[in-house]
């Protein structure tokens, strides 16, 4: 039991020292959910191993590292150019699968569609959380479709099973929502779900802000995974900026001037004038003064003859 719990929390990136300390305090039979709560309370941070052979180059390793090196940071695996500007993605597997299955079937194909959508955008850090009991032979009251997809995603280190076990014939399931929010928060990523996690919002003020600002909702339209173009509403960031670490400010959209060519405001006009794309926006009076100065200079130089 001790080894299985140690392995599980190591996969989440926690150090062996912190995990062992919590297990000593709570006892070896403590539920994984309680262990995670205690790790959060202690302020334990997930870690990643750093290369000892090449101190000048930072070597990135999988999140399954159990390093206890002081000051080490939880670095994204498979770091590449795209991960420099794209946020990590944490998918609520149960929510996505049930949504694709119309709340009747746990459709693993829905999870695959979501993963593929983010992959095509260039995201390199994608994690899907699903309860361990979904790995079992499905029962009649909890049907599952395309179950083999879960196995394939697990081999790719994308899918993570949250713990569950049976005690006296009764299934004890850990709260997978807490893992989803915790991992997304620690990696400064986004949560893909249609759940609002209201209970977790009230549990932790920092999580409340994070869930409000980083929750990406979605729809399935004819087997297409479709997040909204405005995840935080019409006045919020675009989908591209929402998923980026370094948002790009939108280009200003100029409204055409209602007066058109008859406008006399010149450079003081706040509206767009398509008729003068390469011309300084001057008022009519300024233009007349400018033309007069040019004519006077030409007359002085004898280059302008106004006689017929």
UniProtKB/TrEMBL annotation:
| UniProt-listed InterPro entries | Rege-1_UBA-like, RNase_Zc3h12_NYN, ZC3H12/N4BP1_RNase_Reg, Znf_CCCH
What Gene Ontology molecular function terms does this protein carry?
Answer: hydrolase activity; mRNA binding; RNA endonuclease activity; zinc ion binding
Record's superkingdom?
A: Eukaryota
Query: Which chain segments does UniProt annotate as zinc-finger regions (C3H1-type)?
Result: 251-276
What is one cellular component GO term in this UniProt entry? nucleus
Q: Which UniProt keywords apply?
A: Endonuclease, Hydrolase, Magnesium, Metal-binding, Nuclease, Zinc, Zinc-finger
Q: Where is the C3H1-type domain positioned along the sequence?
A: 251-276
- Report any Pfam family annotated for this entry: RNase_Zc3h12a
Its required cofactor(s), as named, are: Mg(2+)
Entry keyword annotation includes Nuclease: yes
Would you identify the family this protein belongs to, as annotated?
Answer: Belongs to the ZC3H12 family.
The name of this protein is ZC12D ribonuclease
- The gene is Zc3h12d
């Amino acid at each position: 039991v001790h080894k299985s719990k140690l392995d599980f929390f190591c996969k989440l990136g926690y150090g062996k020292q912190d995990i062992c300390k919590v297990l000593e305090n709570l006892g070896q039979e403590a539920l994984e959910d309680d262990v995670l709560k205690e790790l959060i309370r202690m302020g334990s941070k997930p870690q990643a191993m750093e290369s000892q052979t090449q101190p000048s180059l930072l070597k990135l390793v999988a999140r399954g590292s159990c390093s206890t090196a002081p000051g080490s940071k939880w670095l994204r695996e498979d770091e590449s150019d795209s991960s420099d500007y794209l946020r990590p993605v944490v998918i609520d597997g149960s929510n996505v699968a049930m949504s694709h299955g119309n709340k009747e079937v746990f459709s693993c194909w829905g999870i695959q569609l979501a993963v593929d959508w983010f992959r095509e955008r260039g995201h390199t850090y994608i994690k899907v959380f699903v309860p361990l009991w979904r790995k079992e032979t499905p029962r009649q009251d909890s049907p599952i479709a395309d179950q083999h997809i879960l196995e394939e995603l697990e081999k790719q280190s994308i899918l993570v099973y949250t713990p569950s076990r049976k005690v006296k014939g009764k299934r004890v399931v850990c709260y997978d929502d807490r893992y989803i929010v915790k991992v997304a928060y620690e990696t400064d990523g986004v949560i893909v779900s249609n759940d609002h996690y209201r209970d977790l919002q009230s549990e932790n003020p920092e999580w409340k802000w994070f869930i409000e600002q980083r929750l990406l909702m979605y729809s399935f339209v004819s087997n297409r995974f479709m997040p909204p173009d405005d995840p935080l509403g019409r006045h919020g960031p675009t989908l591209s900026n929402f998923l980026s670490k370094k948002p790009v400010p939108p280009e200003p959209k100029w409204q055409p001037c209602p007066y058109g060519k008859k406008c006399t405001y010149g450079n003081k006009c706040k509206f767009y004038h398509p008729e003068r794309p390469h011309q300084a926006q001057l008022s009519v009076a300024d233009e007349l003064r400018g033309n007069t100065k040019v004519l006077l200079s030409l007359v002085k130089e004898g280059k302008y003859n106004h006689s017929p």
